[in-house]
Design goal:
Arc Repressor Mutant, subunit A, 54% helix, alpha/beta, Rossmann fold, single chain, 3 domains
Length: 351
């Protein structure tokens, strides 16, 4: 093993050791590369720590390696159209030359200062001109937005994007964000296009793949590697956290210290934030749900003395938040690893 820990729990950074979601990445890249345009926008969604940023970065790297793609990262809080034009100007030589020769974008702080050309009144018009040049070169532009959230600037950009794709310009969009942030944008009036765009949920990693990774990277035997992989429940952050602390402590078995460090990391970096965003009723139901690995809805209602209509809304919220699994009708189970321990600790702190 090398001296540097290959696992990492810092958000926004691609770890040295990670499990790629190759099927999802291949599907999106193949669709974008297709000669016949079927989809021009994708939404990658999931709870914190599921690998959205890593997946988005992998897609960008794949397309950056192709000569016919221009990949641009944008931040959701800024004026996205201005930022897009500015990035195209600063990074793409043939567009730099085109703007300097044909467009006066001084009003937007883009290009060289000149009085020989009339100022462009609208940045949207300038973007269309640039996309025409991109089209002539038989190239494509991918706009990637990580940690997307609803802002006025984002809504304006998506509305402009809808116009651009109707005009068949070679521009594509991939955003990555939390369930609730994506949902908030989808439910905005006038963004029907975004609502219909392909949504890709970050499903759990394959337990057997995690097991083999732990065996190879940490030098664990088959039984310990499987036990450790099972504890992650396929949650990408937990996979990184267990790997990180097993590596740092040099453990070959799952110790109480490894569990304590993983619980602390999950709590501070993920679960406290999730918990703070839940309603009091959601939290109350969870104190009962965590008592068993899984239970029926009927059992939960018997324990809580509640009716079906009182549980239906909290159930949907907890499913949408990625906390419980609603895939099996009538069955309730936790999707998040070590969440029972977190809830129990929260309750203990309140005593």
């Amino acid at each position: 093993m090398s001296e540097r820990n290959p696992y990492a729990i810092s958000f926004g950074r691609v770890p040295n050791q990670y499990i790629s979601r190759n099927l999802l990445i291949d599907d999106i890249v193949d669709t974008l590369e297709s000669d016949i345009v079927e989809e021009q926008a994708f939404k990658i969604t999931g709870i914190r720590g599921t690998g959205k940023t890593v997946t988005l970065t992998a897609i960008e790297k794949r397309l950056n390696a192709e000569k016919n793609w221009i990949v641009v990262d944008l931040k959701p809080g800024n004026d996205l159209t201005v930022d897009l034009v500015a990035t195209l100007y600063s990074k793409i030589p043939f567009l730099t030359k085109y703007i300097d020769t044909n467009l006066n974008l001084n009003a937007f702080g883009i290009g060289i200062s000149t009085s020989k050309k009339s100022p462009v009144a609208s940045i949207d018009v300038a973007l269309e001109q640039l996309l025409k040049e991109v089209q002539k070169k038989k190239m494509k532009v991918l706009v990637a937005i990580d940690e997307v959230r609803k802002t006025d600037a984002l809504v304006d950009f998506i509305q402009e994007f809808q116009i651009l794709i109707r005009e068949e310009y070679p521009i594509y969009l991939i955003v990555a964000g939390l369930y609730e942030d994506i949902d908030s944008i989808e439910n905005t009036d006038g963004l029907t296009f975004f609502l219909r765009a392909t949504k890709c949920e970050m499903t759990p990693l394959n337990i057997m793949v995690i097991k083999e990774d732990y065996k190879k990277t940490l030098g664990l035997n088959d039984d310990v590697a499987l036990e450790l992989a099972t504890l992650t429940k396929g949650y990408a952050f937990a996979y990184q956290a267990f790997g990180k602390y097993m590596w740092e402590l040099g453990e070959k078995k799952i110790s109480s210290m490894v569990l304590a460090l993983v619980d602390e990391a999950l709590s501070q970096k993920v679960y406290e934030k999730i918990w703070s965003e839940l309603s009091e009723l959601d939290r109350w139901f969870l104190t009962f749900i965590v008592e068993k690995d899984q239970m029926t809805a009927t059992e939960l209602l018997e324990i809580t003395k509640k009716k079906h209509n009182e549980w239906s809304i909290p159930r949907k919220r907890l499913i949408d938040k990625g906390i419980i699994d609603g895939s099996k009708r009538g069955i309730i189970s936790l999707k998040l690893p070590r969440f029972k321990e977190f809830v129990q600790q929260v309750e203990a702190n309140l005593l």
